[in-house]
Design brief:
This protein has 356 residues and is an alpha/beta fold. The protein contains 15 helices and nine strands. Strands 1-4-5-6-7-8-9 form a seven-stranded parallel beta sheet. The chain is globular. It binds coproporphyrinogen III. The site of coproporphyrinogen III has 22 residues, from strand 3.
Length: 356
């Protein structure tokens, strides 16, 4: 950990902070001119594999926006390659996995001992942590077993996740072997990021909302809980994020993650109440609101803060990643607004023991 006393880490732990910390998923990306300039000469994968470039992009985005945490620049799918499933980004198509998993033998052949080959991500994180020191926390991240399995099986993005669900229903043992291998690789990968200085790890389970409560509980929760617990043993808080998860929130919370990230489809106070108002919560403005006139954007951001009610343990974020073409000025103005509005609305709790 590099910045254990930051507002962001305090909020992850449910402790009182001076202002509500704010950062954005995908805060380094195509909407930023500095990113596009680097991207002109390098592919996304080249950037991820060059610690110097990845660190520069991470740092520039955090400093430009004035946010309370930097998230390491990498991609969710990097572990696929070291497990034996190469992929590429096709223009306009998104990620394409060359030979998706279809049979038991494909899962049996996956390598589960190869997280060390992702050392370039930890190296980039080390550079970012050295740059910021105690001034700004750095978030490491990985995909969740379900969301990564869905890319491995579907071969890319999907609408119905039918091949994924077919494996779950038709070959539950093969499915569980896949989830188990993923949880092992991801635990080692996340632990390496913590050793490099990460202050928290976010687990992206972006597409888990396609599941019924029963399938989540039986087929996904056990290995996800193992992953969360393994990361917690490294000593940093875990943020567990998914979209369309209104019905899954109590089970997601039961993984033991300190922070649950929610999308905009559920009002923030209702999401927190679904978890008995326990732990910390991250979210949850619709990223499309960054295209709205300032008065609309401000009012909706204020609504999120009001629903959090100044309670300790709220981390302001969007409900999903920043979209391409987002006006940078609106992102900066939102950061400023969250800081100013939350400085006035913290409850009069006295944090005698540094804990709440
Ligand atoms: O948040 C950050 O600033 C850190 C960087 C980051 C990237 N990807 C870089 C990236 C993070 C956290 C991710 C996570 C990621 N990657 C997720 C989970 C988050 C989510 O949105 O749910 C997923 C599903 C992926 C897989 C992926 N990578 C997709 C679907 C795409 C979009 C493909 C496209 O062409 O639009 C990517 C590409 C990607 N990853 C970009 C960036 C900045 C844009 C690529 C570019 O420069 O062309």
């Amino acid at each position: 950990m590099s910045a254990p006393n930051s507002a962001f880490v305090k909020a992850c732990r449910g402790r009182v902070a001076d202002t509500t910390p704010v950062w954005f998923m995908r805060q380094a990306g195509r909407y930023l001119a500095e990113y596009r300039a680097i991207r002109k000469d390098h592919s996304l994968i080249e950037i991820c594999k060059s610690p110097r470039l990845a660190a520069e992009i991470t740092i520039t985005a955090a400093e430009t926006l004035g946010v309370d945490a930097a998230i390491i620049f990498a991609d969710l799918l990097l572990p696929l390659e070291v497990m034996g499933l190469p992929f590429r980004f096709a223009p306009g198509e998104g990620p394409v996995i060359e030979k998706p998993l279809r049979q038991a033998a494909d899962v049996a052949a996956l390598r589960a001992d190869s997280a060390g080959e992702l050392g370039y991500v930890a190296e980039a994180l080390r550079l970012v942590a050295a740059h910021f020191g105690e001034k700004l926390p750095v978030i490491g991240f990985c995909g969740a077993p379900f969301t990564l399995a869905s890319y491995m099986i579907e071969g890319g993005g999907s609408r119905h996740y039918l091949e994924t669900k077919k494996m779950m229903y038709q070959a539950p043992q093969v499915w569980d072997q896949l989830m188990s291998k993923l949880a092992g690789v991801l635990s080692a990968y996340a632990a390496e990021q913590v050793r490099a200085g990460a202050d928290a790890i976010q687990i992206f389970d972006s597409w888990v909302g396609c599941l019924s409560v029963e399938d989540y509980q039986v087929q996904v929760l056990p290995r996800t809980r193992s992953l969360v617990q393994a990361i917690r043993r490294t000593g940093v808080p875990v943020i567990y994020f998914g979209t369309e998860t209104s019905m899954l929130l109590p089970l997601m919370k039961s993984t033991g993650a300190e922070v649950i990230g929610v999308d905009w489809r559920i009002p923030l106070d209702q999401a927190w109440a679904a978890m008995d108002d326990k732990g910390a919560i991250q979210g949850n403005l619709d990223p499309a609101l960054l295209f709205a006139p300032w008065e609309t954007l401000r009012a909706r951001a204020e609504d999120v803060l009001e629903r959090a009610g100044g309670r300790p343990g709220h981390i302001f974020n969007l409900g999903h990643g920043i979209l391409p073409h987002t006006p940078v000025e609106n992102v900066k103005a939102l950061v400023k607004f969250v800081h100013e509005a939350s400085a006035n609305s913290q409850p009069a709790t006295i944090d005698w023991f540094g804990e709440n």
